[in-house]
Amino acid sequence: KTIVMDTAGKDVKMAKLGLKYLASTYYNDALMLTQSFNLSEKNEAEIYFEKFRSLMKIAEPKTGLLRFTKEFDRNMGQRFYQLWLENLNNTALPQKIINSYNEVLRIDSTDSDAWYNISVVYYNQAVFKYRLLDSQTDMFDLITIQQECSDLISKKALPAMSKAYQLQPEKGEIVRGMMYINRALEREK
């Protein structure tokens, strides 16, 4: 209201500084919440991040928010991954992780870490499915699960890891990822 009502412009600068401070507080709180939210609280981090964005558009309309959005989405993906490891039976979480990293890639398609993390999710989906197999698994179910896992690794994990490798062939974890994926596909060489 100060900005709208101050036609002389004498208080606008101070009002915008106040809004920028408030926006940064919302941003910090949003990032903090991405470290610890549970699935019923997730929206609070997103609400704070949206408040940050709306206030920054008023305080500094020319400021690009993409780097902030990228960091927020990356943190959301990391938290979803932690939650998934705590509850592997939650089949919705892998897609939430992938969606978060796809948002990072929408902003920066050369983000090798996002490509790597997407690949890891697909690879681990296959690994976790394999771990469910035991001597009681029906033969036809076994064949179906093996095909699903092979598809996850060859059609999803490998292309994403290959993209990460193209972007950063010197990064050790990406090289190891390529090695594990190719071994899983029985491509030792």
Strand-helix topology:
Blueprint: H1 2-5, H2 12-34, H3 42-59, H4 66-86, H5 93-107, H6 112-131, H7 139-167, H8 172-184
Helix pairs in contact: 2-3, 2-4, 4-5, 5-6, 6-7, 7-8
List keywords for this structure.
189 residues; mainly alpha; 76% helix; elongated
How does this structure look, described?
It is built from 8 helices and no strands. The model has no long low-confidence stretch (mean pLDDT about 90). It has about 190 residues and is mostly helical. The chain has helices spanning about 1-5, 10-35, 40-60, 65-85, 95-105, 110-130, 140-165, 170-185.
Summarize the structure.
The protein is mainly α and 189 residues long.
Q: Main sheet? A: none
* Shape type: elongated
What's the SSE pattern? HHHHHHHH
Rg over CA atoms, rounded to whole Å, is: 22 Å
Average pLDDT for all residues = 92
Distance N to C terminus: 67 Å
